[in-house]
Amino acid sequence: MLLKARDIKKTFPVPGKARKKMVQALGNLEIQQGARIGLMGVSGVGKTTLGLILAGLVRPDSGRVLFHERPIHRLRGAQWKHMRKSIQMVFQHPESAFDPRWKMRKSLEEPFKIHGLPMEKGGLESVLEEMGLPLGVLDRYPSQLSGGELQRAALARALCLKPDLVVLDEPTSMLDPLTQSRILAVIQKSLERRNTACLFITHNLHVAKAVCSQCYVLEGGRLENLF
Ligand SMILES: Nc1ncnc2c1ncn2[C@@H]1O[C@H](COP(=O)(O)OP(=O)(O)OP(=O)(O)O)[C@@H](O)[C@H]1O
Ligand SMILES: [Mg+2]
């Protein structure tokens, strides 16, 4: 099993009420290699929070996330680094997912540097091509890209490390329907080609049905199987 979450809970403070806490129960989930899992639910129910917890980016207050049967938040050193490479996240808001002071080339080369991986000649260019992005974007700042281009760049950055699992947090929500369907096709092709598992967070049932083999709804702190 690639990833297993058990009895995850996360609590956030309620602004202005120091003693009051809002508890988000987020339930149980299992993701196998290559699985396409959808996650739906009304706004504010905790989908992004669950995605961040599964990607090891936020620590739950209680419960366990197991990555290849090992508790994710207890991984250290090389094992932690391996997990961070194997699970990538595409954030909900692409406009704040890149450092505004860096040209896109630097942002897209960064994952290779962090993980000490060699940049194959033309490697970056071929991922951009796969995402349908012109190479010219590499020499621009994030503010000089359109929403669709930024979402494609965020996907390129997440997929270039060939992760085992990618958490896609509403990766097409900001786009017009035509661009949406084009990017969805790109995502599907790319996941299939590499047999990458995904947790696909979306508000759109048609999109969930097109991409996912299984879909959950997060409601009242429980994950219910939708299909
Ligand atoms: N860092 C934080 N500090 C305080 N509250 C937070 C934090 N992150 C999330 N929350 C709260 O937790 C709840 C769940 O937020 P989350 O972003 O996970 O919802 P969501 O299901 O992804 O919503 P949406 O569909 O609007 O993206 C919300 O009420 C939000 O305000
Ligand atoms: Mg969200």
TrEMBL record:
<dbReference type="InterPro" id="IPR003439">
    <property type="entry name" value="ABC_transporter-like_ATP-bd"/>
</dbReference>
<dbReference type="GO" id="GO:0055085">
    <property type="term" value="P:transmembrane transport"/>
</dbReference>
<dbReference type="Pfam" id="PF00005">
    <property type="entry name" value="ABC_tran"/>
</dbReference>
<protein>
    <submittedName>
        <fullName>ABC transporter related</fullName>
    </submittedName>
</protein>
<dbReference type="InterPro" id="IPR017871">
    <property type="entry name" value="ABC_transporter-like_CS"/>
</dbReference>
<keyword id="KW-0547">Nucleotide-binding</keyword>
<dbReference type="InterPro" id="IPR003593">
    <property type="entry name" value="AAA+_ATPase"/>
</dbReference>
<keyword id="KW-0813">Transport</keyword>
<comment type="similarity">
    <text>Belongs to the ABC transporter superfamily.</text>
</comment>
<dbReference type="InterPro" id="IPR027417">
    <property type="entry name" value="P-loop_NTPase"/>
</dbReference>
<dbReference type="InterPro" id="IPR050319">
    <property type="entry name" value="ABC_transp_ATP-bind"/>
</dbReference>
<feature type="domain" description="ABC transporter">
    <location>
        <begin position="3"/>
        <end position="226"/>
    </location>
</feature>
<dbReference type="GO" id="GO:0005524">
    <property type="term" value="F:ATP binding"/>
</dbReference>
<dbReference type="GO" id="GO:0016887">
    <property type="term" value="F:ATP hydrolysis activity"/>
</dbReference>
<keyword id="KW-0067">ATP-binding</keyword>
